């Protein structure tokens, strides 16, 4: 079954789509994007030129890498794009995320993967209670996950492949994330003496799907290992 669209309707649909979805790779295009834009793929260095306060999805332009993401650019994102649902800033070589990220109250998807120099996540991420997916894959320098991670009550996907060499434990309270469906790894220390998560917290994650990678940093107690069976 096929159908035909009148040329005028086609042009109208194309016009509306262009207004709401844009790929920006130059200064000229960035300055031409209108306020109605909802989703944009952009060279990160051009973000300061874009003034779309109604933006819902910000994806960095593929295959273009900058040396770092400045504090000024972070501040601009948090101040101007309060309606963001999707923020994808993978492989941009930044070292930190500013604490003011909590201003993105509507954020559901955050991808900061492939940033090996990122060592610490701001604790204020835990204030974004609408967050459903957090991608940290191949952030090889990441020292730990969020200490108050249990506050992310709507989190369904936590991706951290390639972080097992730097993360030594999982945060206490991760077992309270009852909506969690994806957890790419679970690392335990010797005996949880610092109040970190042990294997017992897995019993609260009843919705996990697929395969999970388990890592044990030191010799783990046998009674904890039985929980995996």
From TrEMBL:
Alphabetical UniProt keywords: Repeat
Query: Which InterPro entries does the record cross-reference, listed alphabetically?
Result: LRR_dom_sf, LRR_R13L4/SHOC2-like
Any Pfam family matching the protein: LRR_14
User: Boundaries of each Disease resistance R13L4/SHOC-2-like LRR domain copy?
Assistant: 78-209
User: Which domain of life does the protein's organism represent?
Assistant: Eukaryota
Which Gene3D superfamilies does the record cross-reference, listed alphabetically? Ribonuclease Inhibitor
Q: What is this protein called?
A: Disease resistance R13L4/SHOC-2-like LRR domain-containing protein
Organism of provenance = Gossypium barbadense (Sea Island cotton)
Source organism phylogeny: Eukaryota, Viridiplantae, Streptophyta, Embryophyta, Tracheophyta
């Amino acid at each position: 079954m096929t159908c035909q669209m009148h040329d005028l309707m086609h042009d109208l649909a194309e016009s509306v789509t262009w207004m709401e979805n844009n790929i920006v790779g130059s200064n000229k295009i960035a300055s031409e994007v209108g306020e109605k834009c909802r989703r944009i793929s952009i060279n990160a260095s051009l973000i300061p030129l874009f003034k779309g306060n109604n933006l819902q999805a910000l994806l960095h332009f593929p295959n273009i890498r900058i040396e770092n993401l400045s504090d000024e650019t972070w501040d601009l994102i948090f101040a101007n794009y309060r309606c963001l649902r999707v923020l994808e800033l993978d492989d941009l070589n930044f070292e930190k995320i500013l604490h003011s990220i909590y201003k993105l109250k509507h954020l559901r998807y955050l991808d900061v993967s492939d940033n090996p120099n990122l060592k610490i996540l701001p604790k204020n991420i835990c204030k974004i209670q609408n967050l459903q997916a957090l991608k940290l894959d191949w952030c090889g320098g990441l020292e730990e996950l969020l200490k108050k991670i249990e506050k992310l009550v709507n989190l369904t996907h936590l991706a951290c492949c390639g972080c097992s060499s730097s993360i030594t434990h999982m945060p206490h309270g991760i077992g309270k994330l009852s909506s969690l469906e994806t957890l790419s790894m679970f690392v335990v220390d010797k005996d949880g003496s610092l109040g970190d998560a042990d294997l017992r917290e897995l019993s609260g994650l009843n919705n996990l799907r697929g395969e999970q990678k388990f890592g044990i940093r030191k010799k783990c107690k046998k009674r904890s290992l039985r929980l995996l069976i």
